[in-house]
């Protein structure tokens, strides 16, 4: 009990953040989401309510539904089953379909609020006693409050923080299970595999890595196999959608296409994105293996995840939830974090104002144009790029790392903490 006391204020503040996120969407929750103009002018859009209707959750089960392929649930199976269970409860509580959708939203928000609180507490535990309060950035920062209930991302956030804590506590099987479940919830935690591999390569701690990867693969297979076997078409919807999806809102590629840039605006974005990501990941690998001191796990996770987001075909407002805890753990310096938060708040406002200006609404009196919108797109790219540059600087100059200045080597590193180097680029070049 005494060990839990320091976490109580953080949990309460995270609960406050979850409540504020609900208040932000009250204009929609009280009926505004039935009118697109009202939804956008009140900045309260959410996927949760409309998808209850559009994915036939009132009558059918995800992946098994007898609906056109493009109406299948386009999420990995853990989220699909979360939607399923909550829709069952909603149908049991309400007879009217509209009332069910409202109940579906409310129950989902409760789950997401709990996920935020759990994620914050896990992040505080990962940060350790010296930096526990850094988790406030995840608990109540403006961008988190605004984006919390757009989609189901907070579930993956809690699983990812659980994975990081389990790895830090050297519980490799649990870390692997949580990682596998996180990947089966939202695909972005797959980037953490690369971070673990690079640090394993540098330290030669192969057994913990392989145990974690085996556990992750096992957990992923256990939750996916029934749907792969019995509902193949529904199961593969997420992967087909991800592959075939064109350039969408928030992505820098949209700017290049809009402005008609040669190559960047005319080429196949799937290929361009993969090449750009591969180049950035190669740079992260060189940095990890060439740094004078082994980087911290959170630093490499942050860089890998930021690279994934910046090169992706879509960059939705809620993706900020992916990055906040890892950005803070990588470099808990308030100035670049605050600058990035301002950029995220501006993007949150800009996307809805921009959509007001797009067909079929075309409300030019209420919305903003291309150039104004793209200032928000590039604001995110630039501010995250600044944070990445500072992290790279900290990796190359460990004396500048504010976490390590407190006498910590790697609070989330687990077997990497205080580990000796076994392989570096310098050792190869000798």
Any overview of this molecule?
One of its GO terms (cellular component) is plasma membrane. Helix 10 (about 170-185) packs parallel to helix 12 (about 205-230). The protein has 21 helices and no strands. It has one domain. It has about 425 residues and is mostly helical.
Number of extended strands: 0
How many distinct folded domains? 1
What's the alpha carbon Rg, rounded to whole Å? 22 Å
DSSP helix count?
21
Family: Belongs to the glycosyltransferase 87 family.
Transmembrane segments: 6-24, 107-129, 135-152, 173-197, 209-232, 269-291, 297-316, 337-356, 376-396
Keywords: Cell membrane, Membrane, Transferase, Transmembrane, Transmembrane helix
Organism: Nonomuraea zeae
């Amino acid at each position: 009990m005494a060990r839990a006391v320091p976490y109580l204020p953080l949990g309460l503040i995270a609960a406050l953040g979850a409540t504020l996120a609900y208040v932000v969407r009250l204009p929609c929750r009280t009926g505004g989401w039935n009118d697109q103009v009202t939804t956008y002018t009140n900045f309260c859009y959410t996927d949760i309510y409309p998808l209850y209707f559009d994915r036939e959750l009132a009558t059918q089960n995800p992946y098994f539904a007898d609906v056109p392929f493009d109406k299948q649930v386009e999420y990995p199976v853990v989220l699909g089953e979360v939607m399923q269970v909550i829709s069952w409860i909603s149908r049991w509580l309400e007879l009217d379909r509209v009332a069910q959708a409202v109940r579906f939203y409310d129950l989902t928000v409760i789950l997401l609020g709990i996920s935020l609180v759990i994620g914050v507490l896990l992040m505080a535990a990962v940060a350790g006693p010296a930096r526990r309060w850094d988790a406030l950035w995840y608990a109540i920062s403006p961008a988190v409050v605004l984006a919390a209930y757009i989609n189901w991302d907070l579930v993956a956030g809690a699983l990812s923080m659980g994975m990081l804590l389990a790895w830090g506590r050297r519980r490799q099987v649990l870390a692997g299970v949580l990682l596998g479940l996180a990947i089966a919830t939202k695909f972005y935690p797959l980037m953490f595999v690369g971070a673990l591999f690079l640090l394993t390569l540098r330290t030669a701690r192969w057994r913990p890595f392989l145990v974690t990867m085996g556990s992750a693969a096992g957990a992923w297979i256990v939750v996916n196999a029934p749907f792969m076997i019995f509902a193949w078409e529904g199961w593969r919807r997420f992967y087909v959608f991800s592959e075939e999806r064109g350039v969408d809102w928030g992505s820098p590629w949209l700017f290049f296409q809009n402005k008609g840039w040669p190559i960047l605006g005319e080429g196949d974005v799937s290929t361009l994105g993969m090449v750009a990501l591969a180049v950035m990941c190669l740079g992260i690998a060189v940095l990890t293996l060439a740094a004078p001191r082994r980087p911290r796990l959170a630093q490499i996770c942050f860089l890998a995840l930021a690279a994934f987001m910046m090169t992706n075909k879509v960059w939705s407002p809620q993706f900020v939830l992916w990055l906040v805890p890892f950005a803070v753990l990588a470099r808990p310096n308030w100035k670049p974090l605050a600058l990035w938060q301002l950029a995220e708040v501006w993007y949150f406002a800009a996307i809805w104002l921009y959509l007001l200006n797009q067909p079929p609404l075309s409300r030019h009196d209420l919305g903003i144009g291309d150039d104004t919108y793209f200032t928000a797109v590039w604001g995110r790219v630039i501010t995250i790029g600044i944070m990445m540059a500072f992290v790279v600087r900290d990796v190359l100059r460990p004396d500048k790392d504010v976490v390590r200045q407190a006498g910590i080597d790697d609070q989330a590193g687990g077997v990497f903490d205080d580990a000796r180097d076994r392989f570096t680029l310098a050792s190869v070049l000798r």
